[in-house]
Design goal:
The chain has 148 residues and is mainly α. The chain is 61% helix and 0% strand.
């Protein structure tokens, strides 16, 4: 579980950086993009805007599924539900967690396999989510909470 939490934090940092680079690309190339002339416009890291967008979408999807799985209450899920002193229902009431779970539920079984729903990078790497994941990681790594 600590691996999943740590990985979510690391992917979130990467996603945040890529989002900033992509935002700069959009700002600098908005006219080319709106005229459908930007698929080959280079971004600072020698990727096309199209490639960077695909990476950003894949990371967003991955992080959405990873965070949702950490707080999943399904009996078969490998989540924090089995840890003592963790009230999973209270965690699921955090607005960002709620939106991430909604996005995951919209994504699974949707006709468009890239549809992710309302999860945004702001939700996925919000201060609340980062604080929650860092706290959980610290509690698990120091054995302050253990599986029942």
């Amino acid at each position: 579980m600590s691996y999943a939490i740590d990985e979510s934090l690391q992917i979130g940092k990467i996603l945040k950086k890529i989002d900033l680079i992509f935002s700069e690309h959009l700002k600098d190339n908005i006219l080319k993009i709106s005229n459908k002339m930007a698929p080959h416009a280079d971004v600072c890291i020698n990727l096309t805007g199209h490639e960077l967008g695909r990476i950003k979408s894949a990371l967003r999807d991955y992080l959405t599924l990873r965070i949702a799985n950490i707080v999943d209450n399904h009996p078969a899920a490998l989540s924090i539900k089995n840890f003592k002193k963790i009230n999973l229902e209270k965690l699921r009431n955090i607005p960002e967690i709620n939106r991430i779970l909604e996005a995951r539920n919209n994504w699974i079984g949707h006709i468009n396999p890239r549809y992710i729903g309302p999860a945004t990078i702001d939700d996925l790497y919000s201060d609340n989510i980062v604080c929650l994941l860092e706290t959980l990681l610290m509690l698990i790594s120091t054995d302050a909470i253990t599986e029942s």
